[in-house]
Amino acid sequence: MNPLTTPLLTDLYQLTMLQGYVDQGMHEDAVFEFYVRNLPEKRGFLMAAGLETLLAFLEGLQFSAEELQYLKDTDRFSDRLLEYLSGFRFSGDVFAMPEGTIFFENEPVVRIVAPMPAAQLIETRLINILHFEVLIASKAARCVLAAADRAVLVDFGMRRAHGAEAGMLAARATYIAGFAGTSTVLAEPLYGIPIFGTMAHSYVEAHETELEGFLSFARANPGNVTLLIDTYDVLEGAGKAVEAAKQLAGTGIKVQSIRLDSGDLNELSKTVRRILDQAGFPEIKILASGNLDEYAIRDLLLEGAPIDGFGVGTKLDTSEDAPYLECAYKLMEYAGKPRFKKSHGKATIPGRKQVFRRFEGRTMIGDVVALEGDDIAGVPVLLPVMTRGRRVSARCDLKEIASQAKKQMEALPPHFRNLEARPAYPVEFSDSLLALRKKMNSEILD
Q1: Contacting residues for 80 by C-beta, under 8 A, at least 6 apart
Q2: Measured between alpha carbons, how far is residue 323 from residues 209, 364, 416 in Å?
Q3: What pLDDT was estimated at residue 442?
Q4: pLDDT number for residue 141
Q5: Which of 49, 198, 270, 303 has the most beta carbons within 10 angstroms of its beta carbon?
Q6: With 0-12 CB in 10 A as exposed, 13-18 as middle and 19+ as buried, what is 202?
Q7: Left if phi > 0, otherwise alpha if psi is -120 to 50, otherwise beta: which for 107?
Q8: How much is the pLDDT for 346?
Q9: How far is residue 388's CA from residue 36's CA, in Å, rounded to a whole number?
């Protein structure tokens, strides 16, 4: 079994509910919606991501003979359910915000319309995929806002991501949000994401002198020479990088950049810039890494640090300051009738919904969440992406998705560039949607 694609990568209660649905013949269409109840602290918006990963999962979803045998051997499931699962393929419809779309709390990001057993079965993995990519894309988008086109951003977080899949999906999500690339090699053949790399302190330590390490690395990688200069002493390392650049110049090898990974990055980058410029190497760029996030990037650039690029790792790929989203996948309609949940603090708003976005010029000014079919002024954001288990259009190119995300970021009201607060953005609910909720509430009370 492939642990990332098997339908057994789910919660047990999905299968126990399926057994009940199948045994009772409950195969009418169900409508589920994925959304985020509340934005995390200091988050003014989120960015949709993970849709392509989800669609690929749905396209390949089926039970193998080995998986069916496992379920049979547990003695938990009926022959009727096993027969249903043996021929299972996802045949539902999917409506979604395109990846890269900005969204807010209580707005449906993905809507699933499928026979109840199918719509229920996919819940766990759907949340698992969308939650993570949205989380990381949203953190990365804040880094992009902080950089404000003044520096290149690269994902450096694979080694401390929470597992192999998390590292890969983080590379994808950060690229969507506007990062130039990643250090994760597999992201290039898998997703077409540019890869970037420098060197580790161990390479310098393995050589007798720092200069010898620099020269050795450059000769081994003549087209990718970035020298890490803080293994011992930063300023001495900068001098050794200059010496290496001079020796290599005669061989046609250019030192493209140096990297700082520790210390006071603001003061060190300014001093190193002077050393490089005075030695006649103004073209050598300065890269920085080491426990960076959007706040550090913002502050360094505001202080005038001459840093050309940032490698952002641990705090990005773990979304350190907001490590989870209060997201949900809830039933909104079954067998043609609206459904809702009234639980305290977790109540849902029933019915199939659409999000209408309003603009003033090119700037977003407010959203309206309405019942599908409501006549609302604005641009509908939820679009059909899969019909009867088949994609509506070809797989989206990741560069096109990143371009869409960039346009979305440019459409944000200017106050969203304040990283410290949760700027207000009006999200309203249509009169018909509120009336439906009120009606269903009264029916429950009666």
Answers
A1: 22, 23
A2: 41, 27, 21
A3: 80
A4: 98
A5: 49
A6: exposed
A7: beta
A8: 82
A9: 26
Q: Which residue has the tokens 């977790």?
A: 346
**pLDDT for 83:** 97
Long-range CB contacts for residues 70-73, cutoff 8 Å, separation at least 24: 70/8, 71/8, 71/15
Residue type, 369: V
The neighbouring-strand residues paired with 258 are 227, 286
Q: What is the pLDDT of residue 249?
A: 93
* CA-to-CA separations, 118 to 25, 26, 65, 379, in angstroms, rounded: 13, 11, 19, 30
- Tokens at residue 433, please? 């949607």
The C-alpha atoms of residue 231 and residue 208 are separated, in whole angstroms, by 13
Nearest to 155 by CA among 402, 400, 412: 402
- Contact between 27 and 119 under an 8 Å Cβ cutoff? The reply is no
Residue 226, beta-bridge partner list: 257
Helix, coil or strand: residue 364 = strand
- How many Cβ atoms from other residues are within 10 Å of residue 307's Cβ? 25
The structure tokens 């949000």 sit at 177
Contact between 227 and 258 under an 8 Å Cβ cutoff? The reply is: yes
pLDDT at 445: 54
Identify the bridge partners of residue 386 per DSSP, sorted by sequence position: 94, 391
Q: Which residue has the tokens 């760029």?
A: 285
Angle subtended by helix axes 79-86 and 65-73, to nearest 10? 170
Q: Which residues, in sequence order, are bridge partners of residue 356? A: 368, 380
Residues in the chain: 446
Residues 369, 355: Cα–Cα separation, whole Å = 5
State the Cα–Cα distance between residues 382 and 403, nearest whole angstrom. Answer: 18
> What integer pLDDT is reported at residue 444 of this predicted model?
67
